[in-house]
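Note to self: keep these together.
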Amino acid sequence: MIETKFDILQKITEIDFSPTKTLDEMSKNPELVDAYIEYGLSESKFAWRASWVISHFAYKHPEKVQRFADTLISNLNNISKDGHIRETLKTIHRLKLDENQISTVFDFCMIILEDNKKQPSVRMIAFSFVLRVAETYPELKNEISILVENIKDYLSPGIRNSFIKRLNKLKNN
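Structure:
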């Protein structure tokens, strides 16, 4: 049975929504993955919940979400809600990306990091992605250091300390 947007909406808005049950169903039914991805790409106010489900699913089954990498990446600029951006980035973070995809997401994450209006959780996920890229491309470490230096005064003390600690760890490796 193919799930519709209405079916997905009904599931993710239920009070007794069971992520574990949903994730089990998704692992058995690839059409459900398609339906959640499609709903997560929509502009529904609950699309972030579908993205949350996909993020958790991608943690254990990235290979089943991998074919949506380009779609998820191209949709990043269409997402306005912080929670939705966060969950989409978490999913993307779990996928194997080629250089062009990495470059696109890296640029997006750098913009997120510079945006003081973004929630700290979104900025943390963006920072995690940026640091992961810098492990592969060490020449980016200096650019990231400059960015952190420019934004650190606008971060909460906890986030600032986390950014600096993680950046120092990267520099020392």
